[in-house]
Write a structure and sequence with these properties.
Blueprint lengths: L1 E4 L13 H4 L9 E11 L4 E6 L8 E6 L2 E6 L2 H14 L1 E3 L2 E11 L5 E7 L7 H13 L4 E5 L15 H4 L3 E2 L4 H5 L14 E2 L4 H13 L3 E8 L4 H6 L20 H17 L4 E5 L6 H5 L1 H10 L4 H18 L3 E5 L12 E4 L4 H8 L4 E3 L2 H4 L21 H5 L14 E8 L7 H8 L2 H10 L7 H17 L15 H5 L9 E4 L31 E3 L3 E22 L10 E7 L6 E7 L10 E21 L7 E8 L1
Parallel strand pairs: 3-5, 8-9, 8-17, 9-12, 12-13, 13-14, 14-15, 15-16, 16-17
Antiparallel strand pairs: 1-3, 2-7, 4-5, 4-7, 6-7, 10-11, 18-20, 19-24, 20-23, 20-24, 21-22, 21-23
This protein binds acetamide.
Length: about 650
């Protein structure tokens, strides 16, 4: 038996719950908590004994709190560490004395991979910020920090063999990604007057790796390839197909220099990061340049590659082989499936779960991080009250309800776990990033740790509200759940009206991208929420021309539909809406022509009803929305008739 001294941060004790309440506040909720009688009290540090039991699974622990002391049992250091994190969350303070409710906790994680992703390319983050997030991740038993070190917006790791990556490709003239991206997308020399950006030295990254390791968090570096690499090709244009800077974002796969570069970089990366997995990106490559590049074409011919997907796969497989030769393995975004998945590769499924399911059906390891549940760059509350974001709407509840294993049963591959991602195009400051992570990362943490039958949204919200107080008292700046406005009110309640349940006739088939509920969408009483991707809004890249059959001739006094506008992704109000009625379905009378008066230049999310008050008798209502001259999408959720 070993004696263990637990150093407790005073800041962790500032949450005003009693000892009895505190054992019900733990995140992630433990597998079993058996409350006992009385409390264990102490003044400076608690007395803890530690016992190793090889019977317990990796990371599992038993925590026994008795009136006369505390005992921790685990099979490994991680388990002991997690027992302490549970204990930290259970400590209450009464009359200057600390106390913990007597109890026994038996606990074990559901998944071995419980990750959080940091995009330090779009906006560079300080080392202190990363360490601070490591601290919070550790408290909630997360164990992987995925750090997106390279992308068009800036290269962030010192590489000795290629100094221009950090003397040039790590800097840009504009601070805000948005100004840079919609401007000239140029880079800048380090130290020049307007250079914004930064990079980590190897010494700093080793410090981060060690800091995280002490908290049982592994840092997984990501080096993007073959796409998202504009910054590399600006510094080393010879690695692009045309040999010119600012000409493309993809490495030339026909050029052996590309492999020399990538392998040299990865060699240096693996010296700094001891993680078993090395993330090689693989997402969103624009492969069109390869079709016109003589070197890429020659490579395809020599290697017998049928298309550019196979050319990408050639690069990934070759890099995977290199990484494996160093005793590591690759993980990549789900596009690495295109053209054939490299043996031994782990897939990070982000475009929904399909890529992950496909990889698992082929026996591969998978980490689920589907955008709809795990992309923390979406707005976490009503967009009108939140900072500018990339769009979308992902409140805490929507993150929490996700179960990564709901469709993976019986597949031969392993589901390693879950990860929350924060892409940072619109997240300029460290404090804004922190606000985007917390408390939603708590939902990721609990899904990663707790068995699904023990998850309970209402109870989680209660505990997360407590965790927000705790995080604030520790100097974090989380989103405050007490201020949550929530989903659009009508989207929560639905809407009853005369046309509800009535048949809708379309002048042409529904387009495939945003079908919502198909032909029942406009009359199902379901109102769209803050985002067009919530499967309540039907999307069109054309006019909308539909006719509702009310079933019988009746009085119609109101017809209206609400459209959404969001300039950046190209969602606009219609130019105008014409509303017609008919008693027989043959001869239609125009009752209103409603013109748009919303400027296309407003950047904010807007909703506007195109409606008419009338006094007619009709069985059929035709609603014709003319697409904006801006083209782009029209989104409509319901056509209300009264
Ligand atoms: C990604 O979001 N492009 C992986």
């Amino acid at each position: 038996m070993k004696r263990l001294l637990l150093i407790l941060s005073a800041m962790l004790l500032a949450v005003p719950y009693t000892a009895a309440q505190s054992i019900d506040m733990v995140i992630p909720v433990p597998q079993e908590v058996l409350p006992g009688e009385g409390t264990y009290r102490y003044e400076d540090s608690p007395e803890i004994t530690y016992r190793v039991s090889k019977k317990l699974a990796p990371e599992a622990y038993r925590l026994e709190v008795r009136k006369n002391g505390i005992r921790i049992t685990s099979s490994d250091d991680a388990g002991a560490f997690y027992a302490k994190q549970t204990l930290l969350q259970m400590i209450a303070e009464k009359d200057g004395t600390k106390e913990v409710q007597c109890c026994v906790v038996n606990d074990c994680p559901r998944f071995g991979y419980r990750g959080l992703h940091f995009d330090v390319s779009r906006h560079f983050r300080s080392l202190d910020f990363l360490k601070k997030q490591v601290d919070a991740m550790a408290l909630y038993k997360m164990n992987r920090m995925h750090i997106h070190l390279t992308d068009a917006a800036g290269w962030r790791m010192e590489i000795e063999a290629y100094p221009k990556l950090t003397s040039f490709a790590a800097w840009r003239p504009q601070e805000k990604w948005k100004d840079w991206w919609y401007g000239d997308r140029l880079y800048a020399e380090e130290g020049s007057e307007d250079a914004y950006g930064g990079y980590y030295t190897k010494v700093q990254l080793r410090e981060l790796v060690e800091y995280a390791r002490q908290r049982h968090i592994e840092v997984i570096p990501e080096i993007e390839m073959p796409g998202h690499s504009e910054e590399v090709l600006a510094a080393y244009p010879e690695l692009s197909c045309k040999g010119r800077p600012y000409s493309q974002g993809e490495f030339c796969v026909g050029n052996e220099e590309t492999f020399r570069f990538l392998e040299t970089v990865l060699e240096e990366v693996m010296e700094v990061f001891p993680s078993e997995m090395i993330h090689i990106g693989g997402d969103e490559a624009n492969k069109t340049h390869w079709k016109e590049c003589p070197k890429c074409q020659q490579r395809m011919e020599e290697e017998g590659l049928a298309d550019v997907d196979e050319l990408q796969s050639y690069l990934i497989k070759r890099i995977s082989g290199f990484v494996e030769s160093r005793g590591r393995r690759i993980v990549g975004w789900d596009e690495i499936l295109d053209g054939g998945l490299a043996q031994g590769a782990t897939v990070m499924s982000w475009r929904g779960e399909e890529g992950g399911l496909q990889a698992m059906s082929m026996g591969h390891d998978v980490i689920m991080t589907p955008g709809r549940y795990c992309y923390l760059d979406h707005t976490q509350d009503a967009p009108f009250k939140e900072p500018e974001s990339i769009g979308g709407y992902l409140p805490l509840d929507s993150v929490y309800v996700y179960d990564p294993a709901s469709r993976t049963m019986d597949l031969p591959g392993r589901l390693l776990g879950i990860q929350g991602n924060l892409w940072s195009e619109y997240v300029v400051t460290d404090s804004h990033a922190e606000y985007m992570y917390w408390p939603r990362a708590l939902a990721i943490a609990e899904t990663g740790w707790t068995q699904p039958h023990q998850k309970d949204l209402e109870d989680f919200r209660r505990r997360a509200t407590g965790a927000v107080r705790r995080l604030k008292s520790m100097g974090y700046e989380p989103f405050d759940l007490a201020d949550e406005y929530g989903e659009r009110k009508l989207a929560q309640t639905g809407l009853d009206h005369k046309a509800k349940g009535c048949k809708v006739l379309y002048d042409k088939p529904i387009q495939k991208w945003y079908p919502a509920a198909g032909e029942t969408t406009f009359t199902d009483g379901v109102i769209g929420g803050w985002t067009y991707s919530d499967q309540r809004w039907q999307g069109f890249l054309s006019d909308i021309d539909v006719t509702i059959d009310l079933g019988s001739v009746q009085t119609v006094s109101y017809v209206g539909g609400t459209f959404m506008q969001l300039k950046e992704p190209g969602v606009f109000m219609p130019q105008k809406v014409d509303i017609y009625v008919s008693a027989d379905g043959e001869s239609f009378e125009l009752v209103a022509e409603v013109w748009n008066d919303v400027s296309v230049n407003i950047p904010d999310l807007l909703f506007r009803s195109f409606d008419a008050i009338c006094d007619v008798r009709a069985r059929y209502v035709r609603y014709h929305a003319k697409r904006s001259t801006m083209r782009g999408f029209l989104f409509l959720d319901e056509i209300v008739v009264n």
